[in-house]
Amino acid sequence: MRKFAFVIVLTLALLLSGCEKYREVENHAYVIMLGVDLAEDDQIQISALIPKIAEDSGSESGESSNSNHQVYAAAGANFDAALNRLRWVVPRQVDLSQVKVIMLSERLARSGLFMPVAYAMMETYHLYTAARLVICEGKAQTFIESENETLGTRIATDLDAMFEDYTSQALIPDGQFADVFYMSASIYSDPIAIYSPSSETAAASVIMPQSADQPGDTQPQKNRFLGACVFRNGTMRGVLTAEDTLYCKLLRGKSQSFQMESDLETLYLAMSTAPSIRVDSQSDPVRISVDMCLSLQTKSECANTNQIAQMLRERILATIDRCKRMGVEPFRFADVAAGGFATIGEWLDYDWHSHFSDSEVDLRIQIIDEAA
Predict the structure, then answer these.
(1) CA 302 from centre of chain
(2) Is the pTM of this model over 0.85?
(3) Other residues' Cβ atoms within 10 Å of the Cβ of residue 254
(4) Distance between CA 208 and CA 206 in Å, rounded?
């Protein structure tokens, strides 16, 4: 009898424990996207996209809403003050463990306040772990409030799938917030972050297939994330197109498959091995030698590997020249060049960026036709 009573008590305890965990989840407001803007009065404004739960209803101060999620916003003199005010505004416990995207406005990224905000984020529990950093051309709050095309709490799944797809197509870099932070604080090459242009500059179209109920049609579609932006000393210096981003990733040694448009057809290429990079910092100007090997995966009767290599070489050199004019070096050349200096002090006195701007780049590309 006692054993039976013990089993009943244990079962009730487990059930009550399960209910308590369920109530604990209900009491949390899981932030999926966190936006940071520089307000007109130079205050830091934070916006948080939080999926709704069944009991959510009505409206709170500082909140905008649609049928699937809510966006809360609050401002303060700095990031910590704004986050504390956000905790007051949100009617449940703010939980940052599920943040997928940290969105900063371009105005903030160019203001020189990125590093103070980034340091505060790095010290915020759970915030820095796996979130991607995105810089948007307009206001971060406006971008987040427009996220009404995704389905409720599955917005996180939608974002993960979209970022993986864009990364595989080389449209965006694949770094996370922590990567950009640490590279911004380093003394070597400059970091790149995902860029989100305005809907006007990222306009595209999607063809809707014909069905029994609806005729085929072409409708406008915006690419929310396209290309990258480059930081130097914690300040955004410029924007790379999707094509520039691809070449930057190739020079960084990222294993990447991509397509390339020629005069006659679309070609598919892939990196065979990481590029070999040598930097002669004693020459004047500095000489950077890069050997790159790619494989042509397109079966074609008219593809000429020498012509393809020359075309690709010209495009990559154009991207390098564009970065020189911006005063940035996101290709990891500095990581190689610094190996030729005995101390960090000597490296800092060398002033890599000024030497890189005047450098000569010798780029040799070999393309192996695997489809032949």
Answers:
(1) 37
(2) no
(3) 15
(4) 6
